[in-house]
Design a protein that fits this description.
Two copies of one chain form a homodimer. With about 200 residues, chain A is mainly α. Chain A is built from eleven helices and two strands; from the N terminus they run ααββααααααααα. Chain A has helices at about 1-5, 10-25, 45-65, 70-80, 85, 95-110, 115-130, 135-155, 160-165, 170-180, 185-200, and strands at about 30-35, 40-45. In chain A, strand 1 and strand 2 form a beta hairpin.
């Protein structure tokens, strides 16, 4: 695709941006463990990223009015781009999650280097900020990133939990970071897990 | 889903936001005419929305540094939500595009009314701003919304064009709004169409 773009009569920087955007589109081909709410197929990481960004727009109004929403949205839109190379590793595969960290680091460096240097450097920094979870923007974004699949699992009667025989205790452990990152979202996670447990969607 | 959410021990406003977000997720089930770059299936409107937002992040840096990116991104994230009710109508179906306007208006009013009143009203206003294409934010967003499928059609060797026997003249006419909305993106559209025509992806 790069070679085709090379023939376009536009500035070199813009060609690099278009090349990056075409590569990024491959995120639509990365499939996650949770299915669409109609059960028809797995959710793509691109769809997950869109839904996270929409969740951030809607939830920030009351839960995080002080964060810089533009920065949060940009983080959420780019946070999974490394999966174009590294693939999606579900949070339930704890060992593979640890193993993938270095692979994702390299993928991020390579991917953002496709952009003009200053822009690519800025987005790589934002990707690291999300991963480090130290700023308010990153912590809110990380909490939403953890809450979204929980909401979908719950709304789709726990199909992904059942396949993996996930217990309420396991899920509570994995979701504890939601309250750590953004305390006001903790009760939502607790409520969804308690309800799923009561309905037998999460094992004892 | 609403009735399940009613049991959650969280504030009523937050329950309405979660209900809205679950309904919004149905946008993943709305399929567009262009396929993923690997040809495996049609792109969903949720994926399209994510890719538009990412394009806006990347292109705004040089092409639209003065726009309020947070507003642009919010517009792009919500602009197709009406398709949850109204479905996607390709730009090539010009009569149906005219017929669908009133249906989309009603769908927008109903959809955003699921949110707490002030928030829903604000997002409905932003949706109208996008449609009206009068502010800089809306005009840049609208240009990107038109450019994205063109870029994908071009990069996937014009499969969607071939199915509909689209000519270069037709495509040039439909894409003229890109230059009207955001002049600096006009040459990209022209370049892609000229190249596609030269390669026989667009008919004479």
């Amino acid at each position: 695709m790069t070679s085709l773009l090379d023939g376009l009569p536009v500035a070199a920087a813009l060609r690099r941006q278009l090349d990056f955007l075409l590569t990024a589109h491959l995120l639509t081909g990365v499939t996650r463990v949770n299915r669409l709410l109609d059960g028809s197929r797995g959710e793509s990481s691109a769809e997950h990223s869109w839904h996270l960004a929409l969740m951030a727009v809607v939830l920030a109004a009351d839960e995080a009015p002080g964060v810089d929403l533009g920065r949060v949205l940009t983080m959420l839109l780019i946070h999974d781009l490394v999966e174009v190379e590294a693939g999606d590793v579900p949070i339930y595969d704890e060992q593979r999650r640890l193993d993938i960290v270095a692979v994702e680091e390299q993928a991020a460096a390579r991917l953002f280097a496709r952009l003009p240097a200053a822009q690519g450097g800025g987005l790589l920094e934002l990707w690291h900020e999300f991963e480090a979870a130290e700023t308010d923007e990153a912590r809110f974004a990380r909490a939403v990133d953890r809450l979204q699949p929980l909401l979908l699992h719950w709304a789709s009667d726990g199909a992904a939990w059942a396949e993996r025989r996930i217990t309420a205790t396991q899920e509570r452990g994995l979701m504890a970071v939601i309250e750590q990152f953004w305390p006001s979202l903790g009760p939502v996670a607790d409520g969804l897990i308690a309800d799923a447990h009561r309905r037998g969607l999460l094992a004892d």
